[in-house]
Amino acid sequence: MMKSLLILALFASSTAFAQVEQELDSFGGNEALYMKAKALNPEVESDVVQNRFSQRTNRFELAPEFSGVFGGDAYNRTTNAGINVHYHINPSWSVGVKYNYAFNNLTPEGQSMVDKASKAAAENPKDPNYLFPQVIYPKSETLALVNWYPVVGKLSFGKLGVAHFDTYLLAGYGNIELSNNTTSEATLGVGMGFWINKNLTTRLEYRAQQYKAEYYDKTQDMLTGVGSVQMGWML
Fold first, then answer.
1. Are 98 and 15 within one domain?
2. How many domains does the chain have?
3. H or E segment at 126?
């Protein structure tokens, strides 16, 4: 008799543990618990956060990107348009590649120096007293990436719905094509992705990148920041 009661108690305990574990894994998406809570206090407005609806194991994601660059050559300002391709190994890890094409404009200071040099060249073409500044600007970059997604969660916006989100860390290495040569580049960054539906996501990302720029009289280490917005589509 005692043995039968012990077996029954162990079975009940394992069943209860499995139910609790399922509730934790589903981020609190149990409809029955919601109805019980609603019945106990109907005046309190409650929302149910549903189970995660996007599976990210052995899947590809395409993510066009627009970004702005902070730092770099003092006389140049850069924005990028590009695309990311991510292969999601599982919900926690992905690998991929990033390609960006750069659009460059002179800063007000750089434009002023170019105007002075143009005027000096027009006044004395053989021996101008003011020279054009050397401006090193990026043309494109190609990077291999590793992303780690340590935190996943959901945000309830009441009647507007529920937003699924991830936070992630990234590391990358590749090449950057500059105006006068091509050199290696390394990058580290952080980001947050919001899932709009099963396939569509929006990423907000910031990364630091490092490379060397070769000027006429020096080699300069460039440490720049890149802030980007991406729209991803899960295949």
1. no
2. 2
3. none
